[in-house]
Design a protein that fits this description.
Layout (H helix, E strand, L loop, with lengths): L2 E6 L10 E4 L13 E6 L2 E11 L12 E2 L8 H14 L3 H8 L7 E8 L21 E3 H5 L4 H9 L3 E8 L5 E8 L6 H7 L5 H11 L4 E2 H8 L3 H9 L3 E8 L19 H15 L5 E6 L5 H14 L3 E5 L7 H11 L3 E4 L5 H12 L5 E4 L11 E7 L16 H12 L3 E5 L4 H9 L3 E5 L10 E6 H6 L8 H13 L2 E5 L8 E4 L16 E3 L4 E3 L6 E3 L12 E4 L3 H11 L5 E4 L9 H10 L5 E4 L12 E6 L13 H13 L10 E6 L5 H7 L3 H15 L6 E9 L2 H18 L5 E13 L2 E10 L5 H18 L3 E5 L7
Parallel strand pairs: 12-17, 12-18, 13-15, 13-16, 14-15, 16-17, 19-29, 20-27, 20-28, 26-27, 28-29
Antiparallel strand pairs: 1-2, 1-4, 3-4, 3-5, 6-7, 6-8, 9-10, 9-11, 21-25, 22-23, 23-24, 30-32, 30-33, 31-32
Helix pairs in contact: 1-2, 5-6, 6-7, 9-10, 19-20, 20-21
The structure holds adenosine-5'-diphosphate and zinc ion (ZN) (2 copies).
Length: about 800
Amino acid sequence: MKIAAVIVDVPSRQTDRPFDYKIPEKWEDVLQIGMRVVVPFGTRRLQGFVVDIKTYSDVKSLKAIEAILDVAPVLNEELLRLGQYLTETTLCFAISAYQAMLPAAMKAKYEKEIRLVDEKYRDRLHPNVQPFFSNRSAVSWKELENTNVLSRLQKDVQNGYLEVIYHLKDKAAKKTIKYVAFSVPEEQRKKAIESLPANAVKQKQLLELLLFNEHLPLKEVLERSGASHASVKTLIQKGIICEYEVEAYRDPYGQHHFAATQPLMLTEEQQQALEPIVNSIKANEHQVFLLYGVTGSGKTEVYMQAIEAVLKQGKEAIVLVPEISLTPQMVERFKGRFGSQVAVLHSGLSIGEKYDEWRKIHRKEVKLVVGARSAIFAPFENLGMIIIDEEHESSYKQEETPRYHARDVAIYRARFHQCPVVLGSATPSLESFARAKKGVYQLLTLTKRMSENGLPAVSIIDMREELRSGNRSMFSRTLFEKLRERLDKGEQSVLFLNRRGYSTFVMCRDCGHVIRCAHCDISLTYHRVQQRLKCHYCGHEEPLAYSCPSCGSEHIRFFGTGTQKVEEELTKLLPQARVIRMDVDTTSRKGAHERILSEFGAGKADILLGTQMIAKGLDFPKVTLVGVLSADTMLHLPDFRACEKTFQLLTQVSGRAGRHELPGEVVIQTYTPEHYSIELAARHDYEAFYQKEMALRRFHGYPPFYYLTLITVSHPELIKAVSVTEKIADYLRAQLSKEAIILGPVASPIARLHDRYRYQCMIKYKREANFTKILKNVVDRYQQEMSQGELLITIDTNPYMMM
Ligand code: ADP
Ligand code: ZN
Ligand code: ZN
């Protein structure tokens, strides 16, 4: 007898282990490790992953596997092992790790149904329940859920008259296209056409089309012959043709034509960066490279020529790009060079489209995937290289379970495949640059920009000075003048604002009261179009207040600046300017992002105004001015990476100007012009920033000098949240070594969210032998309370969100 060990689809501590199931004899040769199956679990039917096949089990009476969902394993041995690694390093459940590796379409969905156990019980059902079963033996839970017979129903279930059945729905629907073809042998086809009545002109035309084609899509046949569906039916009934379905991919870039490109002649610097990468590819040698190259220095060309070397070896490559910069421009560069060998994965695709791209990889129909974070799990089996572009981006860290960082996963996979990882950035994360300095990563440097003009000149404008000299506008005189100059010359400008909405918050000028969300400890944001205040954390909305809820004063005003407000002022100051706004509000519809960018690229606007979305990856030849309206917005966030993020963002934004023939210029407006993040970004001096920031990190004991783990406890009652956090902190102090520093308990920067109080405890440590085990003990200790009550504990072993 063969037995399968299955990880079932219940993310909980008690079920976080394989369960044994008998493999029915008929499937003994079919079932493989890494396939999805359906198994009985208690009263339910669940989806699960087969993680082992064996011949012995300690369990006496085994239940049998009920269905196999895949024809080939969806997780190979490497990915199964990677799942183990994720459970260990991020403290997630195995099922969450496996699900994170597959497209959402393959995640199981369940439907509950109430079924009559036997006809003989029909009359015994409670009179109020009976009508629901009057002419059927099963009723869906949806239909019953909101009726008033639930308690009766429960009794009938307890009595054994009714049972609860769970249906598993596989959402992974494949798209199919209808085709038609002759069903009579070739030599009889002409005769079949002649045998049709003389007036069946269209039917004849249809068949003639098929004479010259093996088969044709039904839709095409109908269009070209002008025949109707009815004629097709008649021909099928007569046995002349047949109709069948062929599996098809949904191709999001289907109508898009990508102009083919050839490898460029590399510069000396590029050549020197490429060589060690190619050597490592050829030698099957695992190594991590940090490609540190200023914006516009030609990193992408280096990536592409390295990929070429990988493909020459008959291997595959993964290229990760931050979601935000996975623009059509970026896709075009890879598709233009590698054509149909490329699959693209990002969140803009529908569930079906993502599933189809995944299947192309799984079936080995493509050699290269370009995608956002989760593309790191692409099921390639012969990986030759992994590239992470803009490696410093915090979007590579997943902020829900499994809380993995794509860089760690990349290194794990590359080690398994003995191939290189290339991390690229103009502003590497401190962690990576420090590793490169220590020789853990190999540093490759591109110092020169491709364009003749070099890096753009940056001017810093002190907005306090502007105010003092009477300028109350959000545009400094310098920025305004330069914008007008660009308009006159017919050149384009990009304006960057790190905010969304019309105005960030509403404050009373008399008493200082700020209107906050009733459920979260966050100020509400004013949205002008709807005239409402919204919470950006929980979605709570309320109408705009016209007087202060605290003191009744009518001097209640909007503070801060949002993209909408800038747009308004801009149209007032420069009425002749054509402005396009790009932020979360204007890009929520599918494809809006692309549309806005292509309009701007086609010169349909003079000024592109946007949030961080526009900071990355854009490359427009006519952009000669970049303005940052307020460089300080990120600087004061309660996050030890705030300065690093500000520096990175300013550098990225500046990098958008003057990438081609026309020289570029950057204007940064700020209230703290003396801050090193701003000053050094203006001088394009990454090295100096690195030194300064490292000294501060060392002083305050932050990464890369210490590892961090953040434990957040939340509960509707404040006292409970505090006391649990206190107990956890005490336990950690007792268990961890003297070197570990435990901060807290303290209230989280967002002290209340969704009506729950949030407390946290931060652990800084260098090495701790039993760290994972100690953290697991914490979870175990509160497991029961968490599954039964309102308590929630999240542990992030590499936090990027400090709020
Ligand atoms: P990065 O990724 O470092 O920001 P890009 O790869 O976008 O830089 O390169 C900037 C520009 O320089 C692009 O337009 C690219 O086509 C061009 N470029 C890159 N390498 C070369 C080369 N060897 N010769 C000519 N042009 C190049
Ligand atoms: Zn809220
Ligand atoms: Zn007031």
